[in-house]
UniProtKB/TrEMBL annotation:
<keyword id="KW-0812">Transmembrane</keyword>
<feature type="transmembrane region" description="Helical">
    <location>
        <begin position="364"/>
        <end position="385"/>
    </location>
</feature>
<feature type="compositionally biased region" description="Low complexity">
    <location>
        <begin position="14"/>
        <end position="23"/>
    </location>
</feature>
<feature type="transmembrane region" description="Helical">
    <location>
        <begin position="44"/>
        <end position="73"/>
    </location>
</feature>
<feature type="transmembrane region" description="Helical">
    <location>
        <begin position="305"/>
        <end position="328"/>
    </location>
</feature>
<feature type="transmembrane region" description="Helical">
    <location>
        <begin position="208"/>
        <end position="227"/>
    </location>
</feature>
<feature type="transmembrane region" description="Helical">
    <location>
        <begin position="340"/>
        <end position="358"/>
    </location>
</feature>
<protein>
    <submittedName>
        <fullName>MFS transporter</fullName>
    </submittedName>
</protein>
<dbReference type="InterPro" id="IPR050327">
    <property type="entry name" value="Proton-linked_MCT"/>
</dbReference>
<dbReference type="GO" id="GO:0022857">
    <property type="term" value="F:transmembrane transporter activity"/>
</dbReference>
<keyword id="KW-1133">Transmembrane helix</keyword>
<feature type="transmembrane region" description="Helical">
    <location>
        <begin position="116"/>
        <end position="138"/>
    </location>
</feature>
<dbReference type="InterPro" id="IPR011701">
    <property type="entry name" value="MFS"/>
</dbReference>
<keyword id="KW-0472">Membrane</keyword>
<feature type="region of interest" description="Disordered">
    <location>
        <begin position="1"/>
        <end position="39"/>
    </location>
</feature>
<feature type="transmembrane region" description="Helical">
    <location>
        <begin position="144"/>
        <end position="164"/>
    </location>
</feature>
<dbReference type="InterPro" id="IPR036259">
    <property type="entry name" value="MFS_trans_sf"/>
</dbReference>
């Protein structure tokens, strides 16, 4: 009796094994291969470098609001009759919210994706600015619209966002990318300052505010179009990676995770050393220079416009200094870089009282160049050290370290004014902050292990 050879059913599920009877007691096993999954369609405009470029654009769009607040004090005082103290509350709320948002934003990006969080953040910035320009009638509304809404959006697109982009999309050249994104923050904060000042002078503060709101709202759709949460989402590998990197599972409990990361990292020495040095960084930049340089120069007879132009020049040199620092961070021990930056910054601030005169002289220009090169240069090596010591939590940890930066800035912004009232000049402020920079240089060398992954 003949037995027909067994056939494998064509309706079998791909990838399964079917066994059918054959001649006598023989059994023939056939295995169907699962067809290869079609790779995801990669948008032509999504590459590691275009992602970095769009992230830089988002940082610029949000960063411009940081320095615009200083240009609003006079117009708001003249139009509404609010005291400068009441207006300052809104700026203070913005600074605190900005600093406190960063670590939670990094955790939210881990949970919901940086594409979604960044787009929403730009929407918050734009909405807060529009409300400030069109619906504000009381000083408390300035604290709400500008301080809270703009502060939340700006904080979510700060350097913690840059750390997330660098960590996910780059294996090589991380220091360089960090430097470029930090430079974007500087461009947003300072390079546009003369342009914004001109708009405020010619067309009023509302026009400048609405122009920046429009830029933020236009940047949102571009972020949504180009940005991807992870290279695997676009079928790509991180820049410099030898093999594809799988997308990690979403992390639930973003806010709880941010707090847990803080509690866990706060039990380590490197966290407090990095937070301490970065607090001094904030004290010696945002706290003293951006708050007190112009009035200090005015005390020596210098015109306010000349002093503001010098600050804009500092911002321009920030770009070159930050990019160079990122390049150096890829090649040198970040601890030694931080120590050198703080030491030179301290010497420069110590000499500043001797350089301030009624006119802009070459020695003061030299100070501006040196300070500009070093101003934000501390960011790439600080992020690199966070990566060395805290691994996957580096972005969240840097968010908390950046909060310390804002605390240091706020403290010296307040104490500097108190010192000016008490002593009649800012000389003691420059000397005191220079001493803090010397301490930061020493603390930088105490941090363990400084060679970041290239």
């Amino acid at each position: 009796m003949r037995h027909a050879n067994a056939e494998v059913s064509k309706s079998a599920d791909p990838g399964t094994t079917r066994t059918t009877p054959g001649a006598g007691r023989e059994r023939r096993t056939a295995t169907l291969r699962r067809p290869l999954r079609r790779p995801r369609r990669t948008p032509l405009w999504t590459t590691p470098w275009t992602v970095a470029a769009v992230a830089a654009l988002a940082i610029v769009a949000a960063g411009t609001f940081t320095t615009l607040a200083g240009l609003l004090v006079g117009p708001l005082h003249a139009e509404h009759g609010w005291s400068r103290g009441a207006i300052g509350v809104g700026s203070a709320v913005h600074m605190v919210v900005y600093g406190a948002t960063a670590p939670f934003a990094a955790a939210l990006m881990d949970r919901f994706g940086m594409r979604y969080v960044t787009t929403c953040a730009l929407g918050l910035v734009g909405a807060g600015a529009v409300l400030t320009a069109t619906a504000m009638t009381a000083a408390w509304q300035f604290a709400l619209y500008w301080g809270v809404l703009v502060g939340l959006g700006s904080g979510a697109t700060s350097m913690a966002f840059a750390a997330v982009v660098t960590e996910r999309w780059f294996v090589a050249r991380r220091g360089l990318v960090t430097g470029l994104l930090t430079a974007a923050s500087v461009v947003g904060q300072f390079v546009f300052l003369p342009v914004l000042s001109e708009i405020v002078g010619r067309y009023g503060w509302r026009s400048a505010t609405l122009a920046l709101a429009g830029a933020a709202l236009l940047a949102g759709p571009l972020v949504w179009l180009v940005l991807r949460d992870h290279p695997a989402d676009a079928g790509l590998r991180p820049y410099g990676a030898a093999a594809p990197v799988p997308r990690p599972a979403p992390v639930t409990g973003a806010a709880r995770r941010a707090v847990r990361v803080l509690l866990r990292s706060a039990r380590t020495g490197p966290f407090w050393l990095l937070a301490g040095t970065f607090a001094i960084c904030g004290a010696s930049t945002n706290g003293v220079m951006w708050t007190h340089f112009t009035p200090a120069a005015h005390d020596h007879g210098m015109a306010t416009t000349a002093a503001s132009s010098l600050l804009a020049l500092v911002g321009i040199f920030n770009v070159a200094g930050t990019v160079a620092s990122g390049w150096l961070t890829d090649r040198r021990d970040p601890r030694r870089l931080l120590a050198a930056y703080f030491a030179v910054r301290g010497v420069a601030l110590l000499a500043l009282p001797l350089l301030l005169t009624a006119t802009v002289q070459p020695p003061l220009v030299a100070f501006v160049v040196v300070f500009g090169l070093l101003d934000v240069a501390t960011v790439p090596p600080t992020i690199a050290l966070c990566r060395v010591h805290f691994g996957a939590d580096a972005a969240v940890v840097f968010g908390w370290v950046n909060s310390a930066h804002q605390v240091g800035a706020g403290a010296v912004a307040f104490l500097g004014g108190v010192a000016r009232d008490a002593f009649g000049s800012y000389d003691v402020v420059w000397v005191g902050v220079a001493g803090l920079c010397g301490a930061a240089a020493v603390l930088s060398l105490v941090v363990r292990g400084g060679v970041a992954a290239r």
